[in-house]
Every structure is written in C-alpha cells, then in structure tokens.
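Continuing the batch. This is chain 6 of the set; chains 1 through 5 are on the previous pages. Same settings as before, nothing changed between runs. Recording input and output for traceability.
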Amino acid sequence: MANVLIVEDDRDLATLLSIRLKKAGHDVSREADGASGLAAVTAIHPDVVIVDWMMPGLSGIDVCTAIRNDPALERTPVLMLTAKTSPADAEVAFGAGVDAFLSKPCSTAELLQRVNAVLESRRAS
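Output for chain 6:
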C-alpha cells in the first residue's frame, strides 16, 4: 500500500507501530531520532511520516518544518504522535504543517485510520 517512515525514539512503541503497519500491508522504515528521520525522508521520500515530537536532537516539529520547507518533500503527509496533549501543543504542531495530531497513547486502529485518511487526502489533491 504505502511506504511509511516512523521517527520515534521509544524502541518498543516503534516496534509495535511497525508490526501493526506491516500487518496492514504497508512497507515500514524506522529511525530513532529527528536528524536520522529527516535524512531518511530526504533519501527515501516516504508516502507518509509518523513522527514523535520530543526526541533527541531535532524535534518532530523541526522535522516537519524542514519537510514543509523543502519543495521536493513539502507534500509528504506528516502525522505527529506525541505525549503532548494540550490544544496549544496541537496548534503548534498544525502551525508547523502536520496533517494529523495524535496523542499518546493512541490505538493502532486510530493510527491506521489517520494514515489511510492522509494518504487518501494527498491522492485526491
């Protein structure tokens, strides 16, 4: 179906997400920090990126901002999966250009629904 990049520093969560996305038919790549994640986005041009906000080095906000500022990547859907849950946090994330904002913990069913929704939205536009 889609090539999904997970940028998440929690190894257990990244593994769980990867397994669930693969079972849903997606190809999955993983990176454990923002800098590696941004390098992977640039190298592989995934169909969708799932990024944590709080990571060592570059934050998920930094990664999303860099994606949106790169003409070759700017249309890449980005889902923010984070422990930050306030409306102000969501506002910052959407201001940086995320397509969906999900609070941890998040059900894998909801995550898959959001992945599919942003993919459909990008295909339609």
